[in-house]
Amino acid sequence: MDNKIVDVAKRAGVSAATVSRVLNDSSLVSEKTKQKVLKAVEEMDYHPHAAAKQLRSQRTMTIGVIVPDIIVSYFSEIIKGIENAAYARKYKVIICDSDNELEKEMEYLGLLSNRTVDGMILVTPFVSDDIIKDYSQKGYTLGVIGRAIDDEVILSCKTNNVQFSEAAVRHLIEQGHKQIAYIGGFSDSMENYERMEGYLKALKDNRIPFKPGLIDSGHFMESGGYEATLRLFERQEPFTAVFTANDEMALGVYRACRERGVRIPEDLAVVGVDNNRITGYIVPPLSTVEQPKYEMGVCLAEKLIDQLNDLNASEQNKYVIESRLIVRDSSNYLRN
Amino acid sequence: MDNKIVDVAKRAGVSAATVSRVLNDSSLVSEKTKQKVLKAVEEMDYHPHAAAKQLRSQRTMTIGVIVPDIIVSYFSEIIKGIENAAYARKYKVIICDSDNELEKEMEYLGLLSNRTVDGMILVTPFVSDDIIKDYSQKGYTLGVIGRAIDDEVILSCKTNNVQFSEAAVRHLIEQGHKQIAYIGGFSDSMENYERMEGYLKALKDNRIPFKPGLIDSGHFMESGGYEATLRLFERQEPFTAVFTANDEMALGVYRACRERGVRIPEDLAVVGVDNNRITGYIVPPLSTVEQPKYEMGVCLAEKLIDQLNDLNASEQNKYVIESRLIVRDSSNYLRN
DNA sequence: GTCCTAAATGAAATCGATATCATTTTTAGT
DNA sequence: ACTAAAAATGATATCGATTTCATTTAGGAC
């Protein structure tokens, strides 16, 4: 280690510039010197110093990803997609786990300002659209997953929340349910808003009156789903089915039901969203909406890197992937 | 953006050196100029350029983590621990998902050579001890989780594999089992080796003959556990319990049993290792050995960063955390 | 006010690679 | 063989911060 380009140059009997050319363009160098240089590089086990390269080129070949909690498989699968796509393009990924704290996320966003990363992908509902737009206008490259932003350049990739939520609730209605609760995530997140919209649309289309008492929220977390379910149980409003804005909260519903002796699906049908791996293993298996997590990660990483390299062939900056309902036992029980 | 230290210096009416001092030592600057500089920094929204800083200081404040598959919760929980500990010390984490490929891991190790990271944590059985020792001897800082390396400086953090495996198998014996299969991971990994050792020790202590036909391997993956179970079923050797070297493979056992109509725990008792979150949700809940994943991540990240900053108060470089058996329904069935 | 020391500040070298520009070497055409 | 064009190579400035070393300013004692 600790060999510099000049050391290699000396050993090969050429200038540093030539070594650099061999290692980069390599077009303007004669075959003979090229071989000499490569031999020296090999013998000295030379590796160009990343920081020097970054300073000169003004690019780090690194992107950052902000997620609220890497342990939740929804996020880790997105990260995997991002990482794989980045690797294929020789980019590295810095992982930023915010522990669901806005403050930490803001701090991580600072990595853009000091050029630690070339771009940033946000997979979180906490940072507001305005803040993201601010960064974008300052000239930083960033994208979001799970929401869309009203902007010409900010990349986004999400799923058709309204449609699949409508389909999920319609499915419950077709099973004979008329009193369907909704447990949402963060009330001001696009994911929550659109999923609620689909829920309302399904009710309306089937002339089922909307009851505010059947709405609650669980912050997209298992514990939140659990608490929301208990609150719903306390209320006067009876319900025979519940649609949760993600699977984590559905797990909370399961826990609350277990404690209270409520049977799924006989007493309560449950449908979640995400198709987390765990949902296929629990009993009863949870009906849920597949979310192409890995694919969304790949999509956004590719587009972001394209944008960083001015390769935006298409003008498109908003991507919506279709997702579909997976019916399992938790809702597969015809009610009369 | 794009403000340099000289711009700040000009605005504050001082030299670049002074600005640098304010932003770093800050001890040798008069209070008055310090305020002037901070005001200018604030007004211009100045952020020191990371690459320039890294080049000069020869440190990136970044560590890399190599894992075989970030989706597996064993790894993502370790990563979370590493990330949190790093964040607290102002270090960033580059995530390297190798997709279980040695070649990718070797490529990622190259990040050490070109100084993209200050240190590296390996949470993988693929890279050999010798390679790790080589890097260490070249002067690079690295550590491993889940194994230990015979070396004076390479950091490691693992659990007491032999003891807890012995306890797990002893538990099965106490439940009345005499024919106990073992499904291991990668045969040349320390995790596998030590867990097998505990298995053998429990058998021996209880005068139960070892039967080679009851040993198989599943590469630490669900699919591997599934296939290994099918192979065991094919053989002549009957068995009433199985100990798997991790939970993923135990999930494979469950799948194979479901397909073949084998009941757990009545026909087959199962004990895994890791206490992945999913094991508490499946039916029957899986008996397993808790692994302090988050804590191991925190431990190694802290020690690694200490080492990078020559803060190795203690001479210790090998850490072993005790882990304990969690008995759930998958093995809680007394056999007669 | 003078002198000496300590504190504060600035000029310039440095980290290691890349890219521009100038120069040398090679090639090709007549 | 001579010249023009093309190819190959080298010298040097540059990226943006930090740090050493020199210099200036301030503070204190007499």
Query: How far is it from the N-terminal to the C-terminal residue of chain A, by CA?
Result: 75 Å
CATH superfamily of the largest domain in chain A: Response regulator
Task: Predict the CATH topology of the largest domain in chain A.
Answer: Rossmann fold
What order do the helices and strands of chain A follow?
Answer: HHHHEHEHEHEEHEHEHEHEEHEE
Number of domains of chain A: 3
List the total number of helices of chain A.
12
Which oligomeric form is depicted? homodimer
**CATH top-level class of the largest domain in chain A:** Alpha Beta
Helix-and-strand structural type of chain A: alpha/beta
Name the chain pair with the biggest interface and residue counts per chain: A-B, 48 and 48 residues
Roughly how many Å is the radius of gyration of chain A? 26 Å
- The stretches of 5 or more residues of chain A where confidence is low (pLDDT under 50) are none
Domain Rhodanese (chains A, B): 150-197
Keywords (chains A, B): DNA-binding, Transcription, Transcription regulation
GO molecular function, one term (chains A, B): DNA-binding transcription factor activity
Organism (chains A, B): Paenibacillus cellulosilyticus
Provide key terms for this protein.
LacI/GalR-like_sensor (chains A, B); four-stranded parallel β-sheet; DNA-binding; HTH_LacI (chains A, B); Rossmann fold; six-stranded parallel β-sheet; 44% helix; elongated; 3 domains; LacI family transcriptional regulator (chains A, B); homodimer; 336 residues; alpha/beta
